[in-house]
Amino acid sequence: MDIDKLRQELEADEGKVHAIYLDHLNLPTFGIGHLVLDSDPEYGQPVGTPVSEERVNSCFESDIQGTITDCKNLFDNFDDLPEEAQLILSNMMYNLGYTRLSKFSKLRASISIMDFTESANQMYDSKWRTQVPNRAERLINRMKALGA
Questions:
Q1: If you ran DSSP here, which 8-state letter would residue 37 be given?
Q2: How far apart are the C-alpha atoms of 51 and 18, rounded to whole Å?
Q3: d(CA 125, CA 83)
Q4: Geometric angle at alpha carbon 21, from 70 and 40, rounded to 5°
Q5: What is the CATH number of the domain that holds 25?
Q6: Cα dist from 17 to 66, 77, 105, whole Å
Q7: What share of the chain has pLDDT > 90, as a percent?
Q8: Does the chain have fewer CB atoms within 10 Å around its N or its C terminus?
Q9: In Å, how far from its chain's centre is CA 148?
Q10: Considering only CA atoms, which of 21, 40, 46 is closest in space to residue 31?
């Protein structure tokens, strides 16, 4: 999978912020949607604390590797999927995290048989679609195109 493509996509969806801010759940975040962890040096720092480009990039690299590992753990056939499906699922994993994406059992079942039309239907039939409507619509349409 082309990590640069994924990075561009995630930067467009998540934004890239060089300071700590509160995300939509009021959790401290910075960079390309990096949730501040208690193991991060930024933990406990106030909103607005600057974060360097190097730190943003380092966290992204770590986060994206974790995302790909999580995708491979959740989707047994991840490496056999078309790159476009890998990008879509990686974007969803980055956005939702393993625990929430793992609850999409019908999506996982349709991905396991490479039924991308049904995968798009399952993505559409979720609360996630209303939480990030623009992102969801774009990813659903891309998944639908794989099934055409």
A1: P
A2: 5
A3: 23
A4: 55
A5: 1.10.530.40
A6: 20, 34, 33
A7: 93
A8: C
A9: 24
A10: 21
Residue 69: closest CA among 85, 53, 50, 89: 89
Tens digit of each residue's pLDDT (9 = 90 or more) over 108-139: 999 999 999 999 999 999 999 998 999 999 99
Residue whose tokens read 């623009």: 134
Q: Which residue, among 100, 90, 84, 56, has the nearest Cα to 147 in the 3D structure?
A: 84
**pLDDT tens sequence across 30-68:** 999 999 999 999 999 999 999 999 999 999 999 999 999
For residue 95, the enclosing domain spans 3-147
**What is the number of domains present in the chain?**
1
Read off the amino acid at residue 119.
Answer: S
Neighbour order of strands in the sheet with 17-22: 17-22, 28-31, 34-35
Q: How far apart are CA 32 and CA 8, in angstroms?
A: 10
